[in-house]
Amino acid sequence: MILNFNHVYYFHVVATEGSIVRAAEKLGVTQPTVSEQIRNLERALGTPLFERSSMGLKMTDAGRLAFGQTTVMFQASERLLEGLSQSEHPTPRTLRVGISSAASRSVAADFLMPMLQVPDCLPNIRSGDTLDLMRQLRSHELDLVLSENPPPTIVGDGFKVVDLYRPRLVAISAIPREGASLVKDPWHELPLINYRPGSPFRWEVEHHLRERGMTPKLIGETDDALFMLEAVIRGVCIAFVPRSVARDAILQKRVRVLTVLPPNGISLNAVYHDGGSVAQTTHAVELLVAYARDQLDPET
Questions:
Q1: pLDDT along the chain (300 residues), means of 10
Q2: What is the per-residue DSSP string for 209-220?
Q3: CATH domain 169-260 topology
């Protein structure tokens, strides 16, 4: 069976826009025309792609499956046009990057800045669950994934994994503003905000405290290191955060370092397809490795 390209394209636009009205406006055609194209595709496939109700359209399971395939197809066509462009001023190639939610909350805000230095490149960065990002990498919806330790199944399976850096945690407390008194013994006078139980950082913090017989009062749990840093700066608590996250606050003397933990097995990795046309991706990874080495935590 050969599908009509127009039917497929109209379906993709409707699924992307979420309504026939917006799809018709984008395509520059009437709503009945769009509806007829969708019905033709559904007849050809032998299954409904949308559930229609007074509340609008909702994709069926078959629709979601089809949309996943059309997304890959039309993204591939865009990449083809980019790659074959003969223009004197070619359009920058899109570098599709996914960063895991856990990693994005545990690295310095400027960590991804080197992406902007890749020549003729337009970074498109999204965050999400690690396994979902890996699925998108496998289906070529992403070019590069940045995540904490990647799933073992991805290693050696047509992918290259590069160790970008290993975060080193520091325990910090606030340096009071002028006129305020300094907390002399933060470990006993201030509570602790810790990582959630599922975080690998949680084990590291608890191991450190247990070895030293410390039991600070726990006032909250989060995996957001930037939130932890802000809470410390406000004098609410002490916290363990990656040194790269606390770097600027330390230099500005807004927080003081109580202790530095040794590097551990937790690492931030870059994962991308091994082989093929990956020069742009490889260059981006090389820039991230250099930046992590020179700027994030140069002493580790």
A1: 79 87 89 91 90 81 86 69 59 81 74 82 85 82 82 66 87 81 81 90 91 93 92 94 90 93 81 76 90 70
A2: HHHTT--PPEEE
A3: D-Maltodextrin-Binding Protein; domain 2 (3.40.190)
